[in-house]
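The following block was generated as part of the benchmark described in Methods. Ligand: adenosine-5'-triphosphate.
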Amino acid sequence: MSTQESYVTDDGRTIGPTVMEMKNITLRFGGVKAITDISFDIREGEIRAIIGPNGAGKSSMLNVISGFYVPQEGEVWYKGKKRPPMRPYQVAEQGIARTFQNIALFEGMTVLDNVMTGRLRKMNASLISQAIWRGKAEKEEIENREAVEKIIDFLEIQAIRKTPVGRLPYGLKKRVELARALAAEPSILLLDEPMAGMNVEEKEDMSRFILDMNDEFGTTIALIEHDMGVVMDLSDRVVVMDYGKKIGDGTPDEVRNNQAVIDAYLGVAHD
Ligand SMILES: Nc1ncnc2c1ncn2[C@@H]1O[C@H](COP(=O)(O)OP(=O)(O)OP(=O)(O)O)[C@@H](O)[C@H]1O
């Protein structure tokens, strides 16, 4: 199927054309090649997973997408244009939001205020226009509040909206982080091991929220994860990395039956 054509999944979601393309990415840290010549694409509206054993290069890839690392070789294409090297905040301004493996929230602030910080990109009224056109700024404030409240309802965190984040258990903090990222209304949402450190019930909740988020807001999601089982039910397509190389790419079924992937997960020796 052409990557420029839309298609409808078995569960009735529409997957659009390619929104991001990684072309022949190579990333080195001194003598260590974290990523070797990897290409793959992300389509609009899909849930795209990047999986692989420890040290495979997943975090490095996520950091290339989000602008934390600039690869020595290869190109990143976004919305049909080659992306020049960019700082992470510029990538964020382009509509790519992310969560972190080690939660990065303002612990002393309430859940509501943390989620509001995710909205900063959407706040357009400058200080001057706020002074002159108070009405415009007020309207924007109301819109922002409404958008944030919708997300808070959606992620079922109403009951803790006034609680300082520092007091919350781990699973809920992860959910608040998700809410904050979603508040930016990203074109692509990058999730860095969203289920790491969670118990079974928390993992089930998180899976449900990721699926619902994609369904309800149409958010394109790219996530990295080393637990293969967790992402198989969630993802439309999966890239599998091992020792910095791409060893598989396809639907969960294709990837599950790929011998190189099976070997990598069973720890079969490499040539
Ligand atoms: N900042 C860095 N400096 C030097 N080497 C690095 C750096 N970041 C990653 N590496 C190396 O690059 C390789 C890939 O690491 P990366 O963290 O991307 O893998 P990963 O698949 O995310 O692993 P994990 O599942 O354990 O998080 C590893 O050999 C790692 O040691």
